[in-house]
Amino acid sequence: MASDDHEMWKPGYDGPEPERATAQPWADDVVEEPSGLAGPSDPDRPSRRSLLTAAVGAAAAVVVGGVAVRSRAASSISASVTAIDRTSASTRAARVLDPLQGTGATFAGSRRERLPADAEERWRRSEAGREPVWAHAAGAGLVIVAAPDGPTTTRITAVDADSGRGRWSTAIAAAIDTVRFVGAARGSIVLETRSELGVAAVGLDDDDGANVWRIEADVRPEPVRAFEVLHGTRFVARRPVDDRDPTVVFDPGVGFEAITMRGRVLSDDHLGHWYALDGDRIVEYDLAGDEASSVVIGSTAGLDAAVAGAVKRLPLVAVGGELRTASERTDTPVADVVRLANEGPPVPGVVDALLPMVASAMVIGGAGSIVGAELDGADLRTVWDRRGVLFSLHPTRRGVVLLVGSRGGAAQEIIDGRTGMTIAAVSVTPGFGERLRFAGNGFVLRRFSESGARLAALDLDGEEMWALPDATPATIGDGYVVRVEPRDAGRGAGHDVVAYGAAS
């Protein structure tokens, strides 16, 4: 087994095969690594040309802070539950961790994608004789289809998500295997292209496909990992390879820099507020509206802080086995020690993640343990705990679900952030990086049975809603999914782009 729990998934690893978890016969799902980067679209935007004209005459971008969302995984992880076990979380807590309980409200920070209630075929569009082809649900009522238009050109076609009819088509100067869909925001379809120079981005007007802007690959000396639409915002970020390098945030309507975040991204509250540790400063970036701004909310000066974070916009630091609130005054960084105010599960002795869920709810990770808790001033109430390493958080309509791993990532589970209970138990197989997609009302993943593989949609209780044969990857739109399927034998070479989910 690799000494680093994530080493076996890194390029160049030539060590032993990972251990495989065995699922229960009825829980035969196989979960994939999340890779979706789609962001929200904005139907209520001002004229693109007027925005661009105004931006050209405006002042330069504001520069502050630092960003990069990830936590360190403990290297000594105990085996977690390897099959569905809906009682695996600690039952020592007195109540469910659910700030929305009894309100009838849905979480405002939920993902906008929505699984359809059924898998009825909505439309099918032939891409005869052209491959490879990819398609992605894009927001703004569009599906983006990409196909080769020569060895160094890709044809981008916007298709109506309801009818499958083409709206516009344009070509970009990049081979199809170097083009990736990033997201849709502020009236732009954002695409990423890769070359020997690095990573670039292109913004296409979602009305007519006009090329509105391009961010060249070589404009910064820092290597770029990827572009993404930041969740809870209408901004696009250029993520660096090294999370200590700046993360530049762009307005995707015009392609101009909005703000630069320096340092390491800590977390976001799913509502447009992002947090970063810039040196010893904890910085909040407000990206929830049309303008980007930043403010220093805390400091780790003079502390041997293992990790910092913010919950309900209150800065926190972990020092040894203690959590402390962080003062806004850099000369006196420590305020109150956060007190454990109940007899719930203990906080990990070594903390490497402090991440917000909904309102005052948070998840604390470290030393192969994950704890669900809530913060009330300087009081901390822990509600559930379980073994594992936290991979990622995904906001849904009723709260946050967590992707948790063990066995160096060979076993993964999706758990309910309110209770710590397993929604779906998973194990990793080849191709897992393409299929897991989250939506506001559930997720899709690959499952196996005696009849073969299928792509299954599960609701937030882990109940299967519907399935499509052969587990071909799909992306999720607003009430539909779309994927590219090989054409049936006898119909000639090519692929079909197919949308599923009855039109509303």
Could you give the topology of this structure?
Blueprint: E1 29-30, H1 48-56, E2 62-63, E3 121-128, E4 134-139, E5 142-148, E6 154-160, E7 166-172, E8 179-185, E9 188-195, E10 198-205, E11 211-215, E12 224-229, E13 236-240, E14 247-251, E15 256-261, E16 264-268, E17 273-278, E18 281-286, E19 293-299, E20 307-311, E21 314-319, E22 322-326, E23 334-337, E24 339-340, E25 353-356, E26 361-366, E27 369-376, E28 379-387, E29 389-396, E30 399-406, E31 411-416, E32 422-427, E33 437-439, E34 442-449, E35 452-459, E36 464-469, E37 475-476, E38 481-486, E39 494-500
Parallel strand pairs: 2-15, 24-28
Antiparallel strand pairs: 1-34, 3-39, 4-5, 5-6, 6-7, 8-9, 9-10, 10-11, 12-13, 13-14, 14-15, 16-17, 17-18, 18-19, 20-21, 21-22, 22-23, 25-26, 26-27, 27-28, 29-30, 30-31, 31-32, 33-34, 34-35, 35-36, 37-38, 38-39
Question: How does this model look, in words?
Answer:
This protein has about 500 residues and is mainly β. It has one helix at about 50-55, and strands at about 30, 60-65, 120-130, 135-140, 140-150, 155-160, 165-170, 180-185, 190-195, 200-205, 210-215, 225-230, 235-240, 245-250, 255-260, 265-270, 275-280, 280-285, 295-300, 305-310, 315-320, 320-325, 335, 340, 355, 360-365, 370-375, 380-385, 390-395, 400-405, 410-415, 420-425, 435-440, 440-450, 450-460, 465-470, 475, 480-485, 495-500.
